[in-house]
Each structure stands twice: as C-alpha cells, then as structure tokens.
Amino acid sequence: MSVSASVSDASSGWAVSTPGPIRNGPLERIRREIAAPGPEELLLRVEACGVCRTDLHLAEGDLVPRRPSTIPGHEIVGQVEAVGGEVGLFRVGDRVGGAWLRETCGSCRYCRSRRENLCPRSAYTGWDADGGFAETAVVPEAFAYRLPADRDPVLLAPLLCAGIIGFRALRRSELPEGGRLGIYGFGASAHLAAQVALAEGATVHVLTRSERARKLALELGAASAGGAYDRPPEPLDSAILFAPVGDLVPVALEALDRSGTLAVAGIHLSDVPVLNYQRHLFQERNLRSVTSNTRQDGRDFLALAERVGIQVTVSPYPLGRADRALADLAAGRVNGAAVLVPG
To answer: Is 193 helix (H, G, I), strand (E, B) or coil?
Structure first.
C-alpha cells in the first residue's frame, strides 16, 4: 500500500525507440500510465532532469539498451507524490534526487568492501529502468538523495550525475594538495569538478575544443584554457579526460609529470591509439578508469557542493525539446549542463 498526493493517470515524456545517430531521431514522444511505487520506492513529480552524455550514448547506441523503449535521464529532481508502504525516510512533499546508480546486491565482495559501484548486479536509472525524461519517475528510497527545498531545481539537477561523477573522477586522479590538474573537455561534469579542485587549492588547466567552454573555464578561475590537443603551460600532476575521445588519452598522458595520474571519466570512449611506453607510461605515470559512483560519493559531493557554493552553469530546455537538447549536446552547443524542465 502506498501513500500519495493527488496524481494524474498518465505521464508524458521521451523514450529511446530505435538507437541510432541523433539526426535520425532515436527519441520518441510517449505517454504512459503512471506506475505506483513499489514498497520501498518513491514516485516523484519531476521538477527538472539534467541531460547527461550517457543519455546521448544510450540514444545513439554506443551504450546498448538493456530494455526496449527506455526513458532516459538520471539527474532527477522531483517532489515526492507517493511513497511505498515500507518507505521510512521520505514523505509526500519532500524534494528528492534520483541518480545514475539505482540498485546493488549489497552482498557481493564489492558491496561489502564499500565498492558498490563495481557490483556485478548493479542497475541504473535511465538504462535498466525508466528515468527522468518525463513528468514523473519512480526511484528506490535507498538510492535517493534528500535535496534542499529552497534551491532552484534546475541548478540542482546537474549535481546528481555530472557533479557526482566529476567528484569521483577527481578523487581517482589522485590530485595532490596544491597540485596541477589538467581537464580535457569542459562540459557539465568538468565545470563542476574544476570548481571542487579550485576550492581545494589546485591549479587548473582546461583543454577543450569549444571557445565558449574555454571562456567559462577562465571565468570560473582556471589558470589557462587552450585547445583540446594543446600542451598545457606546465607539467600536470593529474588529469581527467571528460571528452569521450580516445585520441586524447596519449595527449593527456604525455602532459603528465612523473608519477602523474590520468583518470578517464566517461562510460564510453572511442578507441585509444597505440601507446608508446617511453612517452606515455614510463616514469610511473598512471592510467585509470572511472566506473559509476557509490552512494557515499554522492553524499560527500552534495555536502561539499553546498559548503563551497558550487556555481552550476545551465542551459534549460522545455521537456518537449529533449530531442533538441541531445542534438545540441552532440554538437557541442551546450554551455555548462543542459537541463529539461517539465511544463
């Protein structure tokens, strides 16, 4: 049995029909009956949903769909409209965030060792279950985040994946205190991770193809901003690759100082060219990947974002223009983070 506010019978949104190039229109408009939340789930009335590059990978087929006609979107901000009978942490009317990590087994060796992001039976919002490119969404209580009621939901949405994944990528890069960080690609996740690094005393160099993104980087406090294949003005202690471009892996590795670390943040990456051991890996340079996040990552980042006052740059789109938002993201026309707003 669930407890609910007044909920309409149907919800409109977008689903991935036939994955393919964004120009072919892989998203389709849908209208579906609203599902009641399960015993441990929350039904949210979506206030805003960020548009992540992972959504683009799903729509274009780089990320193989796990179920037909899935609604993308995993940066969900919403108000609770109904709760399952076993829910105890949230009430109708609370503001809640739904993120990428949706379910883990809780019993495997990864879950038991606080590495639930590596759980072989993990499930994800907008991939294994419908996400937030819609007027309503259902999220598990155990994987939901409590969000402040006095914040603009459009500015909160990108924190729930772009922010959390950027935070984990920054930690995976093992940036030393006061270190020199290179950021390759400067979209939604990168512009948030850069602010965390700057708040912690790092020197940040941004390398990206977009002139608009380079301008934003300098406005946020980056020491330099150059082209994606440019050499940074000084050797790097750490680097993060946010652009899904395998060609940049050797470029970033070559820019590292001795014992530097490159963290690759994306869920999808084009092929990496052959690496030269002496140029790219010798002198104890490290190459690391980033896989999802733990719930503790989410809690730590959201608390940090509130404490240091992270500035979120957004490009809002009406929910009815989700296809345009993905097309703009694919073409590099989005400044900061794209966010869908129902209604």
So the answer is: helix
